[in-house]
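> forwarded from #structure-qc
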């Protein structure tokens, strides 16, 4: 069917780079883009880099992670459907807002990142919950892959995707 996960998803981590100027703090109102009638959210994990690098192996990538946080990826689903038809990935449907925080759990406080859990609330009601160990790719693998032939910098944020 049309809902099958593509084989490429299993071969390499996928991600997109969002607009850091549109990061919202917890409790901020998400701006509803005038070009959309279908706003949605995706609960994700985030890692923040303590150091940068290029062509990092997964072990070095793990050492480059400062810590972990909660990330909320907001999407204009109606526009996203159109953008995905072009096969270049989401663009304006994702660039208007993302939520991050409020805390950063430092990497040295986390024995096993796979045990971390995130919870999303909308108007005080729990609407989503996830555990990092359920993700297909670890942050070490994602950061390693992203650093291939591309320099990464301290302070960059990676989100786990859904």
């Amino acid at each position: 069917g049309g809902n099958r996960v593509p084989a490429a998803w299993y071969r390499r981590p996928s991600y997109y780079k969002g607009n850091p100027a549109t990061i919202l703090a917890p409790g901020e109102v998400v701006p509803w883009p005038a070009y959309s009638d279908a706003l949605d959210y995706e609960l994700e994990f985030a890692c923040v880099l303590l150091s940068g690098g290029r062509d990092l192996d997964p072990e070095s990538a793990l050492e480059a992670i400062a810590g972990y946080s909660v990330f909320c990826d907001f999407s204009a689903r109606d526009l996203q459907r159109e953008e995905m038809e072009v096969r270049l990935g989401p663009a304006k449907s994702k660039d208007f807002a993302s939520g991050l925080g409020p805390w950063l759990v430092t990497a040295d406080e986390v024995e096993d990142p796979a045990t971390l859990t995130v919870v999303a609330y909308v108007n005080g009601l729990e609407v989503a919950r996830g555990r990092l160990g359920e993700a297909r790719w670890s942050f070490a693998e994602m950061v390693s892959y992203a650093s291939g032939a591309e320099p990464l910098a301290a302070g960059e944020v990676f989100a786990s995707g859904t």
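QC bot note: The longest helix spans residues 77-85. The domain at 22-156 is CATH 3.90.850.10 (Fumarylacetoacetate hydrolase; domain 2).
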